[in-house]
Hints:
- This protein has one domain (12-173): Hypothetical protein, domain 2 (Endonuclease III, domain 1, Orthogonal Bundle), CATH 1.10.340.30.
- A hairpin with a 5-residue loop joins strand 1 and strand 2.
- Helices cover 51% and strands 2% of the residues.
- By secondary structure, it is mainly α.
- Helix 2 (38-51) crosses helix 10 and helix 9 (145-157) packs across helix 10.
- It has helices spanning 21-30, 38-51, 56-61, 63-69, 75-79, 83-90, 99-115, 117-124, 145-157, 164-173, and strands spanning 5-6, 12-13.
- It has a two-stranded antiparallel sheet with strand order 1-2.
- It is built from ten helices and two strands, in the order E-E-H-H-H-H-H-H-H-H-H-H.
Amino acid sequence: xxxxxxxxxxxxxxxxxxxxxxxxxxxxxxxxxxxxxxxxxxxxxxxxxxxxxxxxxxxxxxxxxxxxxxxxxxxxxxxxxxxxxxxxxxxxxxxxxxxxxxxxxxxxxxxxxxxxxxxxxxxxxxxxxxxxxxxxxxxxxxxxxxxxxxxxxxxxxxxxxxxxxxxxxxxxxxxxxxxxxxxxxxxxxxxxxx
Length: 194
């Protein structure tokens, strides 16, 4: 069983955070930290959908390319993308060039724009409370009852390319669940109900 491992600075971290240099900052400063804004949640949803079937490091290394390509993840701007933008995105080596994912990101921007703050409210209503941090990497999960419910609610709202696994990764990324290991140096989230 593996718990947190010492990083280059001696701090104990979740083992995945030590598998590539880019992961340390992402783990320490972003993963599991609360994101509540509509653009921030749209960005994380989009990146998690693009990650489906790929490694997260691929997405992390292309993140700035995604930000440029998708207008800084401004849902209102992306909602206005048309067929020319799809062609532009399919030719952009700075992102993952997958037509289904690109078209879903644009359709999702339209849905997010229509929902406004309701999109953030929907996502944030699926916060996991009362569950402690995992003690070993073997305790991590890929889905949860909450992620199944979130994926269903997002699909009912019109969001595409999201299932329970993508929804759970989104929940981890935006602080709806605290999956840092119990002995990880990152301070625990103070999760409470809404």
